[in-house]
């Protein structure tokens, strides 16, 4: 079986002869990708020949995967019997506080032994947000406008201090975000982290297809490709040597999260501890969905295995089903936070091209028509294909699912305005900071609507209290206050 996920181009790689390439693409009904060959200059020809050489061996598999992905659209209800997922509940939903404390101790031991690494996926194109740059560079700080990356680096500095270890931070980029992300980390000197503990690696790409099953030419010398989804992490971690790096450092647990959630509880010891207690290979955090239309995938048992069903693939009937108390039957919303064991990652890296399905989503994709004009089509004109990391869940021998509070841990930046926007996220961040300060007896003055806390100093309500600052002024730069509104134009 050929490589099902396409790695980035190696500029030194040889290209195949154009006639050989043309024939092999024609044999699969894709000869049109050379439609403009005669009009291309030497550089453009070279670029297209390189890309075609990279893709050609995988063409049959790519075609098969596209077909399966398109057939799978809206087929969520055909996956098998779907029953509600099981999760360790929050104390207010019947969870046991003593168990939480025991899990915390276990997780702290794991962190203290230097066995945990962090992996952020930051290769997405952020199309809904429409920000000019990698999402990690988005200025989220309600007062300082510090970026998502800067805020996460603060959290990691705090975590390193508390655990007494330099915790490796693995940052996954894509062709769309790699160069800019590397430039930001260079310019910011890795945000104060030890450079040897920061590793940037790049995910693969998958080609886009029109509705007739033809590859799309985004310009006369380039076949449209997009990042292969957060599921691409499982292959990229291995291809880029990150799994080997983990092993060399004695790290055998990977805490995985998404770049756009500044409320992330990074390296959460309770989550790590529950993962260990369950002897899980992969774990998952969920939040309790109240509104059936919340756009998060749902964790359920599908044909007896824990699985996440993407919200676009979940039938309205199941999405809206209620239990006798009026709560949603399928309440467990997946928020993209996982723990993986190194052994499981190794197994999945070898097998994920086969085990993880490819999903199709109809998108508007820049495309050429046969007269060589860019088509300004205003609706979707093709499919982008992606793999999802949560599709690894059914392949884990044991899993653990833990319920957390959305108000404390989840406020993603997805859209430019409205729900899950920079404005809603900053408001929720400020709300969270306010509760931390109140818990520590340092309530900010009335009228304050901008609060920002340096996460390397304080990263929880408990830590705010432990610091023992007498008042806000005492906290110096660790707590910033302003009276400006927190929602700003982007
Ligand atoms: P989303 O699916 O929300 O995508 O990614 P996005 O790129 O942020 O936004 P849209 O859908 O284009 O508007 C969830 C997380 O997975 C990462 C994103 O960077 C984000 O952290 N991701 C997504 C990748 O790293 N690679 C991908 O191919 C897709």
Written account of the structure:
The chain has 14 helices and 19 strands. The protein has helices at 18-27, 42-56, 59-71, 97-112, 148-163, 178-187, 233-239, 242-249, 269-277, 316-320, 342-355, 406-409, 422-439, 461-467, and strands spanning 82-84, 116-121, 169-173, 198-202, 205-207, 209-210, 217-219, 222-223, 225-227, 253-258, 282-288, 298-302, 305-309, 332-341, 359-363, 382-386, 399-403, 450-453, 479-482. The strands form 6 sheets. A 7-stranded mixed sheet has the order 4-3-2-10-14-11-17, with helices on both faces. A 3-stranded antiparallel sheet has the order 1-12-13, with no helix packed on it. Strands 6-16-15 form a 3-stranded antiparallel sheet. Strand 2 (116-121), helix 5 (148-163) and strand 3 (169-173) form a beta-alpha-beta unit. Helix 1 packs across helix 2. The two termini are 45 Å apart. 44% of the residues are buried. Uridine 5'-triphosphate binds next to loops.
């Amino acid at each position: 079986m050929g490589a099902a996920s396409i790695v980035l181009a190696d500029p030194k790689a040889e290209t195949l002869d154009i006639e050989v390439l043309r024939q092999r693409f024609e044999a699969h009904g894709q000869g049109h990708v050379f439609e403009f060959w005669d009009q291309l200059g030497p550089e453009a020809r070279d670029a297209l020949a390189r890309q075609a050489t990279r893709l050609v061996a995988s063409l049959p598999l790519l075609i098969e995967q596209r077909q399966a992905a398109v057939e799978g659209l809206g087929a969520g209800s055909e996956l098998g019997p779907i029953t509600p997922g099981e999760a360790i509940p929050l104390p207010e939903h019947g969870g046991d506080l003593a168990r939480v404390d025991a899990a915390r101790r276990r997780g702290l031991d794991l962190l203290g032994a230097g066995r945990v690494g962090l992996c952020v996926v930051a290769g997405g194109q952020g199309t809904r947000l429409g920000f000019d740059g990698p999402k990690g560079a988005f200025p989220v700080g309600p007062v300082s406008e510090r970026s998502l990356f800067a805020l996460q680096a603060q959290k990691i500095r705090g975590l390193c201090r508390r655990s007494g270890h330099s915790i490796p931070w693995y940052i996954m980029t894509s062709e769309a975000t790699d160069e800019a992300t590397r430039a930001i980390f260079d310019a910011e000197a890795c945000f104060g982290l030890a450079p040897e503990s920061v590793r940037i690696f790049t995910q693969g790409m998958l080609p886009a297809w029109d509705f007739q099953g033809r590859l799309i030419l985004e310009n006369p010398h380039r076949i449209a490709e997009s990042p292969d989804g957060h599921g691409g992490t499982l292959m990229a971690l291995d291809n880029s040597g990150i799994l080997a790096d983990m092993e060399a450092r004695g790290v055998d647990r990977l805490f995985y999260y998404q770049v756009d959630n500044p409320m992330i509880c990074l390296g959460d010891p309770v989550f790590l501890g529950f993962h260990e207690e369950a002897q899980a290979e992969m774990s998952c955090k969920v939040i309790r969905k109240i509104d059936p239309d919340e756009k998060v995938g749902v964790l359920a048992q599908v044909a007896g295995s824990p699985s996440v069903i993407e919200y676009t693939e979940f039938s309205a009937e199941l999405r809206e089903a209620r239990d006798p108390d009026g709560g949603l039957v399928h309440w467990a919303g997946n928020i993209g936070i996982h723990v993986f064991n190194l052994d499981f990652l190794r197994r999945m890296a070898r097998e994920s091209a086969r085990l993880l399905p490819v999903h199709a989503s109809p998108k508007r994709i820049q495309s050429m028509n046969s007269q060589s004009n860019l088509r300004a089509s205003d609706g979707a004109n093709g499919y982008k294909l992606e793999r999802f990391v949560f599709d690894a869940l059914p392949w884990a021998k044991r899993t653990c699912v833990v319920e957390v509070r959305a108000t404390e841990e989840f406020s993603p930046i997805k859209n430019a305005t409205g729900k899950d926007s920079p404005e809603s996220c900053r408001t929720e961040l400020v709300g969270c900071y306010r509760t931390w300060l109140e818990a520590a007896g340092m309530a900010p003055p009335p009228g304050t609507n901008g609060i920002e806390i340096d996460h390397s100093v304080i990263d929880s309500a408990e830590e705010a209290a432990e610091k023992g600052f007498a008042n806000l002024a005492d906290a110096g730069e660790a707590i910033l206050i302003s009276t400006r509104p927190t929602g700003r134009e982007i």
